[in-house]
Amino acid sequence: MTAITPTIPLDAPGKHHGFLRLPHSRNDSAWGSVMIPLTVIRGGDGPTALLTGGNHGDEYEGPLALQQLAWELEPAQVMGRVIILPAMNAPAVAAGTRVSPVDGVNMNRAFPGRADGTVTQKIADYLATVLVPAADVVLDYHSGGKTLDFLPYAAAHYLDDADQQAACVAAMRAFGAPWSMMMREIDAVGMFDTTVEQQGKVFVTTELGGGGTATAASVAIALRGARNVLRHAGILSGPVEGAAAGRMLDMPDDACFHFAPQGGLIHPLVDLGEAVAEGQPLACIWPADRTGVAPVTVHANRPGLLAARHFPGLVQTGDCLAVVAVAVD
Amino acid sequence: MTAITPTIPLDAPGKHHGFLRLPHSRNDSAWGSVMIPLTVIRGGDGPTALLTGGNHGDEYEGPLALQQLAWELEPAQVMGRVIILPAMNAPAVAAGTRVSPVDGVNMNRAFPGRADGTVTQKIADYLATVLVPAADVVLDYHSGGKTLDFLPYAAAHYLDDADQQAACVAAMRAFGAPWSMMMREIDAVGMFDTTVEQQGKVFVTTELGGGGTATAASVAIALRGARNVLRHAGILSGPVEGAAAGRMLDMPDDACFHFAPQGGLIHPLVDLGEAVAEGQPLACIWPADRTGVAPVTVHANRPGLLAARHFPGLVQTGDCLAVVAVAVD
Amino acid sequence: MTAITPTIPLDAPGKHHGFLRLPHSRNDSAWGSVMIPLTVIRGGDGPTALLTGGNHGDEYEGPLALQQLAWELEPAQVMGRVIILPAMNAPAVAAGTRVSPVDGVNMNRAFPGRADGTVTQKIADYLATVLVPAADVVLDYHSGGKTLDFLPYAAAHYLDDADQQAACVAAMRAFGAPWSMMMREIDAVGMFDTTVEQQGKVFVTTELGGGGTATAASVAIALRGARNVLRHAGILSGPVEGAAAGRMLDMPDDACFHFAPQGGLIHPLVDLGEAVAEGQPLACIWPADRTGVAPVTVHANRPGLLAARHFPGLVQTGDCLAVVAVAVD
Amino acid sequence: MTAITPTIPLDAPGKHHGFLRLPHSRNDSAWGSVMIPLTVIRGGDGPTALLTGGNHGDEYEGPLALQQLAWELEPAQVMGRVIILPAMNAPAVAAGTRVSPVDGVNMNRAFPGRADGTVTQKIADYLATVLVPAADVVLDYHSGGKTLDFLPYAAAHYLDDADQQAACVAAMRAFGAPWSMMMREIDAVGMFDTTVEQQGKVFVTTELGGGGTATAASVAIALRGARNVLRHAGILSGPVEGAAAGRMLDMPDDACFHFAPQGGLIHPLVDLGEAVAEGQPLACIWPADRTGVAPVTVHANRPGLLAARHFPGLVQTGDCLAVVAVAVD
Amino acid sequence: MTAITPTIPLDAPGKHHGFLRLPHSRNDSAWGSVMIPLTVIRGGDGPTALLTGGNHGDEYEGPLALQQLAWELEPAQVMGRVIILPAMNAPAVAAGTRVSPVDGVNMNRAFPGRADGTVTQKIADYLATVLVPAADVVLDYHSGGKTLDFLPYAAAHYLDDADQQAACVAAMRAFGAPWSMMMREIDAVGMFDTTVEQQGKVFVTTELGGGGTATAASVAIALRGARNVLRHAGILSGPVEGAAAGRMLDMPDDACFHFAPQGGLIHPLVDLGEAVAEGQPLACIWPADRTGVAPVTVHANRPGLLAARHFPGLVQTGDCLAVVAVAVD
Amino acid sequence: MTAITPTIPLDAPGKHHGFLRLPHSRNDSAWGSVMIPLTVIRGGDGPTALLTGGNHGDEYEGPLALQQLAWELEPAQVMGRVIILPAMNAPAVAAGTRVSPVDGVNMNRAFPGRADGTVTQKIADYLATVLVPAADVVLDYHSGGKTLDFLPYAAAHYLDDADQQAACVAAMRAFGAPWSMMMREIDAVGMFDTTVEQQGKVFVTTELGGGGTATAASVAIALRGARNVLRHAGILSGPVEGAAAGRMLDMPDDACFHFAPQGGLIHPLVDLGEAVAEGQPLACIWPADRTGVAPVTVHANRPGLLAARHFPGLVQTGDCLAVVAVAVD
Fold first, then answer.
1. DSSP D171
2. D70 has a pLDDT exceeding 80
3. What's the pLDDT at C186?
4. Chain centroid to CA A190: how far?
5. Which residues of chain C lie closer than 8 angstroms to A19, CB-CB?
6. Neighboring chain F residues of B21 at a CB cutoff of 8 Å
7. For testing contact with chain A, the best of E21, E31, E34, E36 (most A CBs within 10 A)
C-alpha cells in the first residue's frame, strides 16, 4: 500500500495547490518527506486530464508550461478535472538532474513502480495505481535534458488497439508541435508511457528541445500544446490552435542512430533540422588532450534530416551522437 | 622561474605537435604532470600569432576551430609563426568545467600568474612571461560555457593607446563574426586580455554562443575568424572573408545587466537577438518545488536586443539572467 | 545461509568480548569484513536478554549505556545470559549517521533482512534468525539522532496477543524512564520491533533525547533502564529502581504530527515538555537567504505538550517539525 | 577596491530590505553572485548599530533574532540607524556549516579580509572597510554551532583602552544574558571582534547555546539582548529589560580547557551549569568499534562549573571536550 | 532479454575488434552506453576459448596479456575461435577499482546476472547466457588488486563431476604458473567460476600478484599461460611451455586465514613465499596516530608458507592480513 | 608565532610519548586539533637526532621503523636526545594519502612553512623554527608511496659547503641501505631537505620501496638504517652494521626520466634493478577501453638499470613511467 498521501483533495471542486507527501527517513531528516508539487482544478462535469512534467529533472518545457497553467487555469474554465504535476520526480527537478539524486533511478524506467521500493519507485507506483487510473487523457512532457537536443515534436506510439492508437494520434496532432512522430519503442519496459497505454488511456508525450534550458519559443510550444490537448479533450472550450502547420517525422530503423566510436570534443558539421545525405559527414571527434591527431568522422547511415544530437561539447565512446530521421509528409 | 617546459621547439621551422609539460605531484601520481597541448607552425618570415582556446574549459568553439587549424595548416602557407593552444586550461577542458578542477581557479582572473603558485597560476605565468611576449597578435576564444548563451561576437577593448586600440579594432572587424563589440571592462584585474594588452599586443577575443555545446554554424564562425585574423596579420595570404556583414553591438551601462531577484525555474519570454522595449518582461521565475505561487517577473531596464542570457533552466538569486545590448550601426 | 560468524561463543559460561564478523569485499579491502562488537555474559540458569544499540548510528544513549554494562557486568551477577550489541549497525555508528554509509539502508526498515542482501540486510537477517530466537527479552535503544529531539520515554506497542502486550508493558514500566508511551505503528513493515514481537518476545524500545549527543542525565536514564529490565526479567537480582515516577504519554492520532510547510530557519516558540493549546503557534520559519519576508507560522493542531521536535536549525518542506502528545496520567 | 555593492541605500531614511551583492564566477553560474541579506532601518538622528549573525553558518540564535528584528522594527521607533546582517557568511548559513562551503574559510579568522581574496575574505573586507567604520555599536552573535554547547552568555574583551572597555562591558551587561563573560583572547588575529575593537567601537559578542539548533528560550535571550543593546545605545527608547539577573563567568587560565586524549564515544558525567570539583570525572570515552576495553576518563583540571562541552556523540583526539569556568559573583 | 549487442560478429572468420554495447542512460549522457572491448579471432575448425580479464578493475595481468594476445594472434594460427574480453567489467577497469563505479557491484558475486538488473548484472547475464554457452574452455584472470598480494598461481576447483574436474586440472597445469592451487569455495554463490563450471565447461582461473600493479615477470606468466591453455585446447599448435616447473599449493582449512584484530599500520615480519612455523609472528599492527602503544602481533595459526597478504600499509579490523598455505609437492 | 604546542617536554630526561597539538577549527569540531604523534627520548649528554616519517602519508617504511624505535629505545641507551615524529603530516598518514587531506598541500614543497598558513604550512613552520634548529642530525624517511616504486636507497645532496656535504655522505653511507645516491635537486624550493641543510645540519633522506605498502625486508632496512645513523652520530653505542655492502647509484641527467606519452594500461617490460640498454623497450602502454590498437612503446633514453617506476596499472600522459639510473661503483 502506498505511503504517499496528497495534502489536498484530488476530486473536490475548485482549485487546490498542494503536494503528494512521501515520508523519507534520511541522515539529514529522520522524519523527512519528499514533497511532489500538485495542483488540481475541477470545474463542471467532464473528463480528467493528467498533465506531468519533470519525469526527468533536467527537462524544462514541461515544468514551465505546467506552472503557468496551474497558475492561470480557473475552475470556471474547466469542464472536468485537470491534475497537474510539474515535477513528478521532484528530487531530480530540484537537483536539475536526469535521474533522482535520492536513489539514482531513472523514473521513466521505474514503472509500474513498487509501493515498498525506493523513492522513485514509490512515486511511480502512486502514479500507476492512483493518478493514471483516475485520468482519461495523459500528457507527459519530455525534452532532451542536459545531454540531448531535439527538434520539437509531440509523439504517439504504435499500439495493438487501433482505436486507442487513433485517439492518441488525434491528441498528438491536436497538441500542435512543429513536428509529430509515431514511435515504436524497442524497449518499452518500465516507461510511464507503457503504464498509461496499458490502462487504455489516451497518451501524448513530447520532445521539445534540450540542452537543459528552455527558450521563449519552446515554452510557447509547450503551453499551446497543453491548452490544445485540453481543448481537444473537451475540458477547455474553444478550437485547437495552430496544429495544422505541424509536420510528421519518422525514425524507421536502427540506422537512424549514430554512436560515437570514440570520446573527445565533438565538432558538429550539420545542425538540427538540416537535410542529410547518406554518407555525409555528420560530425568529427577530436581528442580533448592533444593536437596533431586526425579526427574521427561519423558519416550518415541514411538520408534524412538531423532530428536529435548529443548536446555537450565532450562525448564518450558509445554515446548517441546524432539521430537522422525522415520527414514523411 | 617557470617549472613548465615545452616538449617541442617553439621556434623551429616546420610543424610540431607537443605539449607544455608542468610537473604536478598529486595523490594519484607523485611524479605526474599537467600536459597542455601545443602546436607550433613556422614558415617564412613574418609575425607571430598566438591562438588560444580553453581558457574556460566548457567553451567549445575555440578548441574545435584550433584543433582543425592545427591539423590543416602547413608551414608552406605560413609567413611567420602560429602558436596554437586549443586547451590553455587543460585540466578544465578535460573535465568540461569553467574553472580548473585542480585548484578551483578561474584562469581568466589568474593573470599575470605566479611561477610558484597553483597549477592555473603557473600556466598563466608561462603565458604571460614566455608566449605572449613572443607574439604580435593574440586571439583568445570564449563562448558562454555551460551557464551563459551569447549572440556570436568578436570583441576589442577601449585602450589608452589609440594606435593599439585601432589595431585591435581592425583585427576584431577582420575576424568577421556576425556581431562585434567594443568592451570597457569594469574589473579587468587578472584577465588574460589585460596582460596581453599591457604588453602592447594586438588582441581579439570572442563570445561565440554557449550552453556548453557548439553547433556547425558556431564552429564555422570560429574557424573563419581565425583564418581571417591570420590573413589580416599577413601570416596567411588571401583576403579576409565575409567580415563586411558584421554588425556592431554596445553595452553602454550597468542597466544592460539583469540579475535574478530569486531562484527557481526560468521561464524566458524573449530569445537571443530579439528586440526588447524598456519595461518589457524578459523572463519569469517560478519556484521549482511548489505550485500556486505567483512568478517573479524581470522587466527590461532599457531598450535594446537580448545579447546574452542565463542558460540552465534553474537560476539562483543574483545570477545574471539577461543582458540587453544596443545595436549601434 | 548467513555469512556472519561470531568470533566468540554465544552460549559459553563467563564473559566474552568479540565481534560478529561479516565478510565484505570492497575497493579498499578485497577481503575485508564488517565487524559488529559483541559481548556475551553468561552466569547461572535463567533467561536470555538481548540488548541492542546503534540501530541508527547517530543515537548515543544506547551505545554508551551498553558499553558501560558490557564492561561492568560480571557472570556472577547474571542468572541466565546477557547478549549486548552496542552498535548493531556498526558502519553507521562509526560514521555517526542514521543510515549505513555502506548501502544507504535504514536498519530499522530492513527487517527481517536477507542473507544474500546488502550489508545492513545481512546483519538484520542474522539478528532475526539467530539472536532474537535465542532471546526472551529484547531491549532496543533509540534516541532522536542528529535531526530529532524527544522527551525521554520507553515504549511498548499495542499487540494482538494481550498476554504478550502485558508483558511488554510491564517491562516498559520497569525500565523506569521519565515518560512511557504506548505506540501503534502505522507502518511497522521492516522494523526490528515487529520482527521481535512476531517471535513472541518481550520487547521494549526507547526514545531518550536526541540531537546526536548525550547528556549525563540521559545516559543515566538509559543505564538505569537496562539494569531495571534485567532485574525485572530476573537476570539481575534486586528491585527495580525509580520506575514509579514515570508518566504516561499518548499520541492518539495524526493530528499530533506537524510538518514544515516550507523550508528555512526554524524559530521555535515552545520547548520540549511545555504545554500547548490548540492553535497556539509552535514555531515560525524564516527564509535563510533574505530579510523582509513574513515568517510562516505553524500552529498546534491539538492541545497537549511538545514531545518531539525537529532539531537542526534548518528545515526543509515536509520535515516533521513538532509532535504534540498527550499526558495520560 | 571592493567588488561588493549593496542593492539598497545604506543611509536613506526608512526601512529597506536587500542584499550585499558579490559577483562570483563559478562552474554552475559564470556570472553568478553571492547574495548577503541586509536590512537597514533609519529613523531620526542618532548613532548607528551594526547587528550581525551567521559569522559561522551553523549558529542559529543570531540569525533568528535578527530576522525577527528586521521584520518588526520600524523607522519611527529608531533614533539613528540599525544595519542588520543576519547571515554575514551567507554561503555557510545556506549550507548550515561553520566555515564557508565556497572557500573553506572560517570567517572569524578572515578579518580584516582582502578585497582581492576569496569570497569570505571579500565579505570580511567589506565589513571592515565599509560597515564597521559606519557603526558606533556592533553586536555579533555566536553560539556553539553543531559541535559545541555553551551556557548562554554575552561577552566583552579586556582592552588596552579602559574607556572603550568600560563602554563594551556596559553594553554586554545591558544585553542581559543569563551569564556574562570577560574574555582575553590568546589568538585574536583574524577575528571580527579585533577588527571592530581596533576601530574604537563598542563591541558585544555572545555564545548562546549550541548543537546546531535553537530553542524558544535561547532565541528569546538573543532577541531581548538585541533590543536591550539598542535601548542602551539610545537607538530604541525605553529601559533595558532583565539585565540585572545575569551572573559573571570567568575562564582564568588554560586549565579551564580539557582535550580528548583519544577518540570514541563520549559518555558525559557532568552537564552544563553543574558544579565541578578538581579531579572530578567529567566524561569517559569509550571506543565506538569494540567492547571490553576500559574507558578513558577525563578529570577536571580545576574546580568551577561546566560552561561548554563538545556536543556530538563522537569525539576525536585533541577535540576540546569540556570547559570548566568560574562563576565570579 | 539482454540489452547488450556486439558491434562485431561473434562467429565470422577472421579477426574483429569491437565492443559489447550496453545502453546506459545517465545524468551525463541520456543516451549513453557502456562499451566493453571485445576481440574475436576465428580460424579453421576447432573449439572456442573465452579469455576474460578485468572481472575486478584493479587487477592488471589479465588485461595486459589479453591486449597483447588480441593484438598479435592471427586467424591463420587459430584452429577454432578465441573470444577475448580484456575488460569484462569495463567501468571498473576504466576507474581502476575492484567494484563497478556505476552500481557498486562486485562482478564476481553478480553471476548469473539479470537482464533487467544493474549494469554489472546485465554484463554478467550476457556472459552467462551468450558467451559462456558458446565456449569450450574459459580462462578468467585474477590478481590481488590494490589491496591483496598473492604468490602467482593458477587454480581449479574441486567439482562433483570427476571428468570435468580432471579436465580443469589438466588445463590449470598446462597454464604453467609457478604455483597451482586446488580450491574448494566456501561461498561460490554469484561467482563467474560457478556459472562456467555449472555449464560443464573447462575452467581455469588465476591469482598472479597484486597491489594494483603488474611487473614484467607477472605479465610474462599471464601471457605464457594463455598461450599454453590455447595450445592445450588444440586451438594453437605447438607444445605447452614451461609447465613442468610449477608447484602445488593447498589451503586445507580456515586456519590458513589471519584477520586483523585491530586497525593501524601493518609491520610485516614475513614476506610472500617465506616459510612460516606455527605460532611465528606474521606481522605487528601499530596505531597510525600515536606512539608509545604496544603493537598487536598476529601469530601464524599453522605452519606453511605465506601465500597472500593485505597489501596497503593501513589495515582495518577484520581485514584478511595473511594467508598461510601449504606446498603439497 | 606558532600555534603548535607539544603535550610533552622536548628536553626533559627520560622517555615521553605525546603530541604536537595544533588547534584546527573545522565543521566537524569547532575547537578541534591536529595531533602529531611525538616521542622524545633523552639520556646522557650528546647530540640531538630528529627522525621523521610520514612527510608523505602513503609511505610506510619510515613510520613503521620509527614506531618500533620509539617503543624499544630506552633513555639508558641514548647519549643525547632522539626526537621521533613517525607521522609528520599526521592527517595525510591517517588518510593514507601523499598530500594532506586538510589543505591539499604536499608537505615536502611547503617548507619553511608559515605560522599563519594552512595546517600543513603551520606544521612545516614548527619543524623549521623549533625542531630542526634543536637537532644536529636529521633523518627523513621517504618511499615511493602509492604511485612510485624505488630500489631501496639512502641519499644525500650535493651541497655548497664541502664539509657539510662530507658529513651528510658519511651519515648516508652509515645508514647502510642496499643502494646510496648523491642527488642534485633541480627544484629544491619548499623541500624539508633544503630547510634542514640550510641550517647546516647533517641530513639523510631515503627512498625505500613503494606501492603504498611495506615488506618485512624493506622495514628491516629502514630500522637498521635508523640505528646505524644514531650509532654513527654517537647517540647509540656500538658499530654501524652492514653498511659496507651498499652500492652507489647516480642519476646523471634528465635523460634518466621517461614520461608516458599517452595514458592507458602499463605493460612493463623491465623490472626494478634490471639492466637496461639504450633504446631497449621499457614498457608498452595499451588503451584501457578498446582492443585492436597498437601499443605505444617507451624506449630507454640511456643505458643503466631500472631504479624507479610508476606503480599503478593505469598511467596518464605525462606521468614519470621509469627512471634509468647508473650504478657507479
1. H
2. yes
3. 67
4. 14
5. 317-318
6. 259, 318
7. E31
Q: With an 8 Å Cβ cutoff, is D320 touching chain B?
A: no
**Nearest CA among C218, C66, C238, C49 for reference residue C138:** C49
Q: Are E136 and E201 in contact (CB under 8 A)?
A: yes
C-alpha cell at C197: 514481537
Q: Which chain E residue's Cα is nearest to A145?
A: E30
pTM equals 0.96
Dihedral sign (CA D72, D76, D78, D82): positive
Q: Tens place of pLDDT for every residue, chain B, 329 residues?
A: 899 999 999 999 999 999 999 999 999 999 999 999 999 999 999 999 999 999 999 999 999 999 999 999 999 999 999 999 999 999 999 999 999 999 999 999 999 999 999 999 999 999 999 999 999 999 999 999 999 999 999 999 999 999 999 999 999 999 999 999 998 776 778 999 999 999 999 999 999 999 999 999 999 999 999 999 999 999 999 999 987 778 999 988 889 999 999 999 999 999 999 999 999 999 999 999 999 999 999 999 999 999 999 999 999 999 999 999 999 87
**Nearest C-alpha in E relative to D287:** E262
User: Distance, in angstroms, between D161 CA and closest chain E CA?
Assistant: 45
Q: Which ipTM score applies to this complex?
A: 0.96
Q: Which three cell numbers stand for residue C98?
A: 542514521
> What chain E residue is nearest to A318 in terms of C-alpha separation?
E33
* Domains in chain E, CATH or no CATH each: 5-249 (3.40.630.10), 254-327 (2.40.50.100)
Partner D, chain E 240-269, Cβ-Cβ below 8 Å: 262
Cell of E220: 610474462
Residue pair B221/B142 in contact (Cβ under 8 Å)? The answer is: no
* Segment (H or E) for E225: helix E216-232
Give contacts of F262 with chain A, Cβ < 8 Å. 290
List, as ranges, residues 39-98 from A with C-beta within 8 Å of B. Answer: 39, 58, 60, 63-64, 66-68, 70-71, 84, 86-87, 90, 93-94, 96
Is the peptide bond preceding residue C112 cis, with omega within 30 degrees of 0?
yes
- B vs F: CB pairs below 8 A: 51
Residues across chain E: 329
- pLDDT reported for residue C258: 97
Chains that touch E (3 or more CB pairs under 8 A): A, C, D, F
Q: Inter-chain contact B71–A291, Cβ cutoff 8 Å?
A: yes
Q: Which residues of D touch F32 (CB under 8 A)?
A: 147, 316, 318-320
A35 touches chain C (CB under 8 A): yes
Q: Is A17 on the interface with B (CB under 8 A)?
A: yes
The residue of D19, D24, D29 whose CB has the most chain B CBs within 10 angstroms, and thus the best one to mutate to test that interface, is: D29
- Write the residue in A289, A290, A317 that is nearest to F289 by C-beta: A317
What the block records as the C-alpha cell of C5 is 560468524
Consecutive sets of 10 residues in chain F, 329 residues long: mean pLDDT of each? 95 98 96 98 97 98 98 98 98 98 96 96 98 98 98 96 97 97 81 97 98 98 98 97 87 93 98 98 98 98 97 98 93
CB atoms within 10 A of CB C216: 17
Q: For the segment C287-315, what is each residue's pLDDT rounded down to a tens digit?
A: 999 999 999 999 999 999 999 999 999 99
pLDDT, tens digit, 9 for 90 and up, residues A110-152: 999 999 999 999 999 999 999 999 999 999 999 999 999 999 9
Q: Is D21 on the interface with B (CB under 8 A)?
A: yes
